[in-house]
Amino acid sequence: MADTLTHTLIEDAQGIAYGAGMAAFGVILLTHLGLITGQTAGLAVLISYATGYSFAAVFFLINLPFYWIGYRRMGLAFTVKTFIAVATVSGLTLIMPTWVSFAHLNPIFGAILFGAVSGSALLALFRHGASLGGVGILALALQDKTGFRAGYTQLLFDAALFTAALFLRDPTTVAYSFLGAAVVNLVVAINHRRDRYIAT
Question: Which residues cross the membrane (predicted)?
């Protein structure tokens, strides 16, 4: 097998910029349609719907407790890159609505587009040693301590999140949301292969 490659600073910067930019655009699509998604971003969206606080503020704040876990498990570089990615997504979701708006967006197409855009965003962040923080970091830490698979933790969290969404959104909207989340997971599952992409 070839020696492990390391991305340059410029490559990391463009990868994280792309990932954060596409993730923010995904949030704009999502919230325009009143949909939700899974993981930490989904929790932030749901809280913003329930309280009226901006997604940007909620997403930034709920990620704060997870950076220590990320530092302990993944190291300083991962934690710094993740903080930058989360902060950039939060900032962009505040200003991006002044750059783009939708006269009409079909909810099924919008959910699929959200999933594709967000999936590509996560791939870019993962391949450059970053994430969008939160539940994924906690799931990996729990797996280390207890042996309980990280994927199961994330699945249980998302199941609880979508159940809670039924109290704030109608079943059709939740179904569209589930479609979008499924597309995100499919994009990542099919394309994120550590044995194929070994650069860090």
Answer: 16-35, 41-62, 74-96, 108-126, 147-168, 174-191
Overall size of the chain counted in residues: 200
- The pLDDT score that the predictor gives to residue 3 is 40
Residue 73 has what pLDDT?
Answer: 81
Residue 2 within a domain: no
- What range defines the domain where residue 92 resides? 9-99+107-191
Residue 120: inside a domain: yes
Determine contact, residues 27/45, Cβ cutoff 8 Å: yes
Residue 58 lies in a domain: yes
The per-residue pLDDT for 2 is: 40
Structural domains counted in the chain: 1
* 80 belongs to a structural domain: yes
**pLDDT at residue 199 in the model:** 40
